[in-house]
Fold:
Amino acid sequence: MGIKTMSSPFSGFTKSTIWSFLYSIKEWQLFIGLLCYAFFIRFPFFFRDYVDRDESTFILMGQSWVDGNLPYTELWDLKPPITFFFFATIIYVFGKSFIAIRIAGTFLVAIVAFFTFKIGDKLGYKSVALWSAILVVLLLSLFGSLQGVMSEHICMAFFMPGIYYYLFKRKFSYQYLAGLLIGLALMSKLNMAYPIAFMMLYTLWPKKGFKSLLKKTRLEFFFGLGVLTILFATALPYYFKGDILIWWESVFQAPMAYSKALDRAIYKPVPVVIAVSVFLVYAWKKKLLNFKSRKLWIFILLIFGTLFSFFKAGKMNGHYLIQLHPILILLVFPVLYKIDFFKNFKVKNYIFLLLFLLPIETYIEAANVIKTKQEKNRFMNGEGISVPLYLKKNQIDYHPIFFTEYHIGNWLLEEKPPTKIATHPSNIMREILFPYARNERKTSQEELQYIMQQIQPKIIVRRKNRPFFDGRIAWANDYMAIQIQNNYKVLDTIEQAILYQRLPSN
Structure:
């Protein structure tokens, strides 16, 4: 199955170090296995209100689309439309179901892992590809906020099969399919334009004169046509609505303006860049990878293109690494496989034990689910669940409500955020985005004053022992403290959520 010639960047493996059944496993069986392992790791998180605030925002945007409002028209957030379309599809089919959303996320992880295997199998041997796929499941499901469904999960579920078809299925129909998949990836996470650009510049470079370039161009035309098909498809609804400009401003102009305005922490990607560079130099010095392989260089460029996108963004959150792990693993595993220490490592004696011991977070969350069932007679847990239940049970008038945290509660209460820009509460402090969201107020101060003095939320929800907004924005937190002191009382504390109720006389 794997490419075993010296032209492969991952050549030189033997079957003697892995169980023989791995070489006879069918692809559909592997996919089911990866799906089951992903399900095992992620299952306890099916019952949590939210894992990351971005996921809550995507759900609200998806619900608005189901209600008949195109993204960026009723609610607004800084992501391309395919991310919201994914959530809208799940909500439209299954209704308001956290479990359905998390199951869909499990399929995304399995798809990424499966195509990591397929790419690795084309470049080397099944053993390396298989363990790469298993590690992808772990790295896309554990640590930080990765148990939720992030835009990076959606992006890579399109990106990895797109790269597979682009590199290994060099026919017009498959190149068009690859373009469609990469287009969907770009319209999930726009920063993936950088690694794709790096890859395309390299693959189009004429190796044997311009005749070879013309031959390649015919294939690349269909690839590009597929990408453009998706871009036009996302724009068409706005064209028919007569407002294509809002699509252009929200999808392309807003991210560029936001990245320029950020207080750039460009040092954050530096350790990763150094580590990757040291690794590649080591692999080159020890001849552990075939650096004459064009495909190897494509993967290197995809890695550095992704890292470059982090530099351009000015930050690198933990969940951003979802975009890096699958490609990087395909280089790291073959190198480890050739190092004597790992070659002699008797991992097969306890590999299954490790696979079930590594997901410590899974067991901690499972204990939390059991505790919630025992104490509250329900599996669903988290303040985003508890606060809406409390308000409904006690028949408290909560319209309008302002969640500065746990804003997934809007979804369960069938409430809208107080303003369009407040779909993700932190966006209130990002006034650089206001023109692209077509916000009526021009500054963050005007927006916050409008919410507190004109809308006058009857209930405000914040997180205990945390400021209302980023602690570095002193004026906003001071303003909220004054408003709470003058116009609100503490209604109750629900787990880690503090509820403030507006005083009747105000």
